[in-house]
Design brief:
The two termini are 34 Å apart. The protein folds into 2 domains: 6-108 and 170-461, TIM Barrel (Alpha-Beta Barrel); 474-552, Sandwich (Immunoglobulin-like), CATH 2.60.40. It has helices at 31-36, 38-43, 78-91, 110-116, 176-192, 233-244, 260-267, 299-313, 331-334, 341-353, 383-391, 398-408, 445-449, 455-468, 470-474; strands at 12-15, 48-51, 95-100, 104-106, 128-129, 150-153, 158-161, 168-170, 196-199, 250-254, 276-278, 287-288, 290-294, 320-321, 358-362, 476-480, 487-493, 497-504, 511-513, 524-528, 538-540, 546-552. Strand 12 and strand 13 form a beta hairpin. By secondary structure, the protein is of the alpha/beta class.
């Protein structure tokens, strides 16, 4: 099938289904809740929905521990509800992307249960090892979520590898039968009409067959050099590409620690293995490698990361643009200002939405949802959050430990979506599965719907502009004022158009003067957060002020 590369003109919207909208009052978001909100999603001028896992799961990692790859969890409404949402999205001109989680399965998956009993052909579907002669673990690798990466199974009398939670057993992708299973899963969903996959930790699927000891790199990552970008990774991804090329679909690879240069090994060339890679580096504006190793937010660092990815991929690969997803805290609480929530939310939005690439908006990001701060670790549910809390030094004061959780827990992105100011933020008529952020009476969709100056309508306008301005897809990228600690200013330029994006990251006034070659009074101010006053070809910013100017270099003004 001829590919159209439709994703290059698209804006994606990510749904973490458990917290989006509950339709039946059981306190858990579901697919009929999504169906009720399809028109809302479409109103954001998005072109595709990415669903975090919807498969049956015991929820040790909320869907990322899969029990059945070819079904939809009854908790979410089952296959009938999924097909209804799929059809409804397609009728509205939106594509649907599934999460594909094939590095590991749940230990409750039938494959694992058969493997632990040594039933063929499943005996080698997972990575099993005997204890060493002295009875110790097969190697010293760490799990990302729970202690060491090996769990002893009493029935099989061997250890199995789990790079994440204990209940997430790693598949043995070196077994060709396992790779055939992956291809079968892909065909199943693509034949149903799904439009592609976000492939979870896909760069971990090939391990060094000798499983040698790792050296210390960072907390919870010992051994990562022996399974990240493993020896057969590219070979296996090209096998999967043979299936994907039969469909007009998109593949997005999640690759922890990936650099722009390494990303091009996957998304560059005449026949790329993947279409886009998720750049974790854009989440490092206030941390080192992982959210729990925190430092004060640095705009200089973030600007350098953005510029590096834009320059490195220009003409060679396609960027995936994001500021929030289900695995990171809320961005206004990290890079912006809760005091100037709306203003900083607009600055953040314009900072990434007009770069070259395919942007994703995560549920609640468009209304400026913020981090939640629960009083006790006992109130949290996430396996990673709880593990990180107990991994902190035992002699740390409780307040200090909880402050690190408040800064870094991904559960801040998983609180129920705030639809209105009614009980439980309009998410459910029952008891929510998790705590609703207490600021929902102020921050909710209904409060912003009809306000032309709201963050919600700013996102709508920005997403709409992307679809009308070819310069956003095709233009070059250039950053101005690279040493400013308060301004992020960048240009997108094509033969016919120039876009100048000016974003303040400061609550204080900042003097801005247009770069050489720009006359602000001759440009169209197509998006703004405050006023339009210009003096001496510049202006003094108000708190977190944002402006986007369009310059038409041929013919006349463009209708936008």
């Amino acid at each position: 099938m001829e590919r159209t590369y439709w994703y290059k003109d698209a804006v994606f919207y990510q749904i973490w289904p458990r917290s989006f909208k509950d339709s039946d009052g059981d306190g858990v978001g579901d697919l009929m809740g999504v169906y009720e909100k399809l028109d809302y999603i479409k109103s954001l001028h998005v072109d595709a929905i990415w669903f975090s896992p919807l498969y049956p799961s015991p929820n040790a990692d909320y869907g990322y521990d899969v029990m059945d790859y070819m079904d939809i969890s009854g908790e979410y409404g089952g296959m009938e509800a999924f097909k209804k949402v799929l059809d409804g999205a397609h009728q509205r001109g939106m594509r649907v992307i599934m999460d594909l989680v094939v590095n590991h399965t749940s230990d409750e998956h039938p494959w694992f249960q058969a493997s632990r009993r040594r039933e063929e052909p499943y005996t080698d579907y997972y990575i099993w090892r005997k204890p060493k002669r002295d009875g110790t673990l097969p190697n010293n690798w760490d799990s990302m979520f729970e202690g060491k990466a090996w769990q002893y199974d009493e029935e099989r009398k061997e250890y199995y590898l789990h790079l994440f939670a204990i209940k997430q057993a790693d598949l043995n992708m070196d077994n060709p039968r396992v790779r055939d299973e992956v291809k079968k899963i892909m065909r199943f969903w693509l034949d149903m009409g799904v439009d592609g996959f976000r492939e979870d930790v896909i760069t971990f699927i090939s391990k060094d067959k000798d499983l040698p000891n790792g050296f210390f790199l960072m907390p919870a990552a010992k051994g990562i050099t022996h399974y990240s970008n493993g020896p057969h990774l590219h070979e296996y991804l090209m096998e999967f590409r043979d299936v994907l090329d039969q469909y007009d679909c998109v593949t997005i690879g999640e690759a922890p620690l990936v650099t722009a240069r390494r990303a091009l090994q996957f998304i560059g060339g005449k026949r790329p293995e993947l279409d886009m890679m998720i750049p974790f580096q854009c989440m490092e504006g206030d941390c080192i490698l992982i959210d729990y190793v925190h430092h004060p937010f640095s705009l200089l660092k973030l600007k350098h990361i953005w510029r590096h990815w834009q320059d490195a991929l220009r003409g060679r690969g396609w960027n995936f643009l994001y500021l929030e997803n289900h695995d990171h805290p809320r961005i206004i609480s990290r890079y912006g200002s809760e005091k100037y929530r709306v203003e900083s939310g607009k600055s953040l939005a314009a900072s990434y939405l007009f770069q070259q690439g395919t942007p994703i908006i995560y549920q609640g990001q468009e209304i400026g949802m913020t981090n939640i701060r629960l009083k006790s670790i006992d109130m949290y549910e996430d396996v990673q959050t709880i593990n990180n809390y107990h991994s902190f030094r035992a002699n740390q004061p409780e307040q200090k430990r909880m402050e690190r959780i408040w800064q870094a827990t991904r559960e801040s992105a998983r609180t129920p979506m705030q639809w209105d100011d009614s009980e439980n933020a309009g998410f459910t008529e029952g008891k929510p599965w998790f705590y609703v952020n207490p600021n929902y009476p102020e921050i909710n969709v209904a409060a912003q719907e009809d306000d032309p100056e709201s963050l919600l309508n700013f996102y709508r306008r920005a997403a709409e502009l992307r679809s009308t301005l070819p310069v956003v897809r095709y233009g070059t990228f250039k950053m101005y004022y690279p040493l400013s600690r308060k301004l992020f200013v960048y240009e997108r330029r094509s033969k016919a158009q120039r876009l100048l994006v000016i974003c303040s990251y400061s609550p204080d006034p900042v003097k801005f003067r247009a770069p050489r070659g720009y006359d602000l009074k001759k440009g169209q101010l197509i998006l703004r957060s405050h006023g339009d006053k210009v003096e001496n070809n510049g202006f003094v910013t108000r708190p977190y002020e944002t402006r986007v100017y369009l310059f038409q270099d041929r013919r006349g003004p463009v209708e936008v």
